Amino acid sequence: MEPAFINVRDITAVSKNIALRVKVVRMWVQKGYGYDKNNFINELILVDEQGDKIGLLIRSQLRAKFVRQFSEDGTYIIRNVSVADNKLWKTIHCDHEYKLSCVFKTFVTKTSEWNGQPTRFNFRQFSDILNLEIGYDVSVDVIGRMVGIGNLTPYVRDGLDTKYISATIKDISGDVLYCTLWGDFADKLNDYMDVKQPGVGVILIIQFGKTKERLCENTVNTDWKCTEVYLNSDDPVTNEFRTRYIEAHGDDDVLVTVAPTPTVSSKTENSWIAASIPIGLDQLNPSNVGQYVSYATIDGIIPDEGWCYTACKKCLCKVAAIDDVDELTLDADGILAREYKCRKCGPKRPVYFRFKVQINVNDDGGSASLWMFDREVQKFIKPSAYELKKSMTAEQDYPADLDLLVGKKMLFKIEIGDYNKQKRYEVYTIKETSDDEKHLAEYMDEVGHDEDDDPQMPELEDITDNDPQMPELEVVDVEHVIADNENCSNSIGDSVGDNSANDLLNGVSGDSPAKKRSKVPNQDTPKSVGSSSSKLKKALFDGVSSDD
């Protein structure tokens, strides 16, 4: 007996003997992950006759059996596929809670029967994207009339040369959305603008784009393998939109110039450094709400409060497990699957694991504990939090991969929030990180770092040559200075505190540039004296002269 067809929206983790009539909307090949990380896999996005979408995976060992049976825009009957939780996968291209996977017993039959919707798009309102109704890293389809375009810009991304172009599009309601097209899509748009007829407006469709953060609002990028871009396509969807847009806004072909996108990973315009207050770690105070920047080294992982959390896929907030469910199900790996509730989005939300790592950092003047979240951790660690969680043993406090962070020196944008102030909570949040030389140079300009501020002590022969009043080099008995530190302390103690003469000869000046130039208001920490190397030099040799 043939199984009855099931709607995509009715698929659950316990669905058995599934039979679907679906159309292939997108199909692509990519490098695998998890068990297939050393091979290639195929990903498909399917849509049923009700317009609901779901993903289908063809693993590397089954590609030869199934890949040639599918083609884009083809309609198929698919039977006997496995079902897994969608949050288990590295990228989530559909909103569906589950994802399908071909197995050896899967059957695929091409069919001409199709009573579904004529369009394969599922356009989202710009207002939902701009108002953060949709979270980050979510797949969306958008359509709009282009009202602005930037220049084709070369860029080095993850060590590879690429390019991008920025554009703004307007929908019928008048909302404007910022978009970034990468790689071949950037070339496609740039080439089209060179040959398009004057006076003809451009209708841009981005299918399966990826929402990204830009200045606290959502934008859409062409970041995924499944993304497709259409420019003035001759199809009913584009023609209908053009007609409605002209009725609402007219048909002018004026394009404004769009500035380069700030959504790229390296933050090329460096605005966050200039907008943050330079500070030494010892000056961080939970009472001083604001955003600061420090140059420090990660010297340890603090596993006391875990290293990841289960997050709502839509709003990224932490979710709670619902234990009193009627039916407990198993995921693809036989692990107990639980229902989760998000305090913002409600129960049964798609969830996934995100990094939340507490690290200890230090600079020349002090140390601090900071929270490092998913986006910043994955700049340095490639596996996802879920992949690392699966690979851990019971004896481990945290994955060994996180130790790759230890020893890294970089700029940290640190946020002290209202929660820190109210609770006197002294673990602060990292908003940005960078080890880029340009960013570091900008930071040094902000703190006023120059040769006079360099904490490195000059060589003794340089001091003798440059200052005729100084004693000859052989007169300076370094061993005597170190041994007789107590006698020297009366001369130099007022300038450098408790530092030994040995420390001074090795170039310890006491204060980092950030600490000296900090612009933090209302600090209770007393300002340290003796910040200049010239003062240290004078204090040291005044002391030596008096002893001799």
Description:
The protein is an alpha+beta fold and 548 residues long. It has four domains: 8-110, OB fold (Dihydrolipoamide Acetyltransferase, E2P) (Beta Barrel), CATH 2.40.50; 126-257, Nucleic acid-binding proteins (OB fold (Dihydrolipoamide Acetyltransferase, E2P)); 271-313 and 350-447, Nucleic acid-binding proteins (OB fold (Dihydrolipoamide Acetyltransferase, E2P), Beta Barrel), CATH 2.40.50.140; 451-547, no CATH class. 22% of the residues lie in helices and 32% in strands. It contains 15 helices and 25 strands. The protein has helices spanning 63-66, 126-130, 183-195, 236-249, 271-274, 374-377, 385-391, 418-423, 437-447, 460-466, 478-483, 485-496, 501-505, 513-517, 533-547, and strands at residues 19-31, 40-48, 53-58, 75-85, 98-110, 139-149, 153-157, 160-170, 176-182, 203-214, 217-221, 228-231, 256-257, 277-278, 290-302, 308-312, 319-322, 329-330, 336-337, 339-342, 346-347, 351-362, 367-373, 409-416, 427-434. The strands form five sheets. A five-stranded mixed barrel has the order 1-2-3-5-4. The chain has a five-stranded mixed beta barrel with strand order 6-8-9-11-10. A five-stranded mixed beta barrel has the order 15-22-23-25-24. Helix 12 packs antiparallel against helix 15. It is globular, with a radius of gyration of 30 Å. Residues 262-270, 324-336 and 449-548 have low confidence and may be disordered.
Number of helices: 15
Q: Uncertain spans, ≥5 residues at pLDDT below 50?
A: 262-270, 324-336, 449-548
Q: How is the biggest beta sheet arranged? A: 5 strands, mixed, barrel
Radius of gyration: 30 Å
Kindly give the count of domains.
4
